[in-house]
Amino acid sequence: MSIYNFKVKAVDGKEVSLEEYKGKVLIIANTASKCGFTPQYEDLQKLYSKYKKEGLEILGFPCNQFANQEPGTSQEAQSFCTMNYGVEFPIFAKIDVRGEDVIPLFKYLTDKAPHQGFDLDNPNGKLIYSVLSSKFPSYIHGDSIKWNFTKFVIGRDGEVLKRFEPYVEPRDMEGYIKEVL
């Protein structure tokens, strides 16, 4: 099994097979418009612009499961990304990335790339851990998504290669992306 076995919904509700991205290196991220990490859209777009011709695709999945930080519709999330960050990569329909209603793709991603712990030496890693500990303690345990902007890198063969937690900036992923491309 690979990510090519999954289908997701586009903003317009149409089903999209991830097989359409066969042979590409993918970054799949859960996103939100009102999050402290929302400016990561800018660096994701920079990576996309720089490496698209080499086969990089980025797939954004808006999610409202973390402190109501994506309250609008899927269309509003897509418009926000385009207008505020010039995002050209696909933004899909809003989804759940954890809990009972997690979509199968994100269940698969977290199974293949489990949570490796919090980097408490990273100020943002320490901040996320602190917020989760005090406000969402159940989120700390297990391999599920911890917060917005968890990023997964998928190889050209559709296999999950690596998971980057929200506090890892997209620009800090560039060396790894170049290696994989």
UniProtKB/TrEMBL annotation:
<dbReference type="InterPro" id="IPR036249">
    <property type="entry name" value="Thioredoxin-like_sf"/>
</dbReference>
<dbReference type="InterPro" id="IPR029759">
    <property type="entry name" value="GPX_AS"/>
</dbReference>
<keyword id="KW-0560">Oxidoreductase</keyword>
<feature type="domain" description="Thioredoxin">
    <location>
        <begin position="1"/>
        <end position="181"/>
    </location>
</feature>
<keyword id="KW-0575">Peroxidase</keyword>
<dbReference type="GO" id="GO:0004601">
    <property type="term" value="F:peroxidase activity"/>
</dbReference>
<dbReference type="InterPro" id="IPR029760">
    <property type="entry name" value="GPX_CS"/>
</dbReference>
<dbReference type="Pfam" id="PF00255">
    <property type="entry name" value="GSHPx"/>
</dbReference>
<dbReference type="InterPro" id="IPR000889">
    <property type="entry name" value="Glutathione_peroxidase"/>
</dbReference>
<feature type="active site">
    <location>
        <position position="35"/>
    </location>
</feature>
<dbReference type="GO" id="GO:0034599">
    <property type="term" value="P:cellular response to oxidative stress"/>
</dbReference>
<dbReference type="InterPro" id="IPR013766">
    <property type="entry name" value="Thioredoxin_domain"/>
</dbReference>
<comment type="similarity">
    <text>Belongs to the glutathione peroxidase family.</text>
</comment>
<protein>
    <recommendedName>
        <fullName>Glutathione peroxidase</fullName>
    </recommendedName>
</protein>
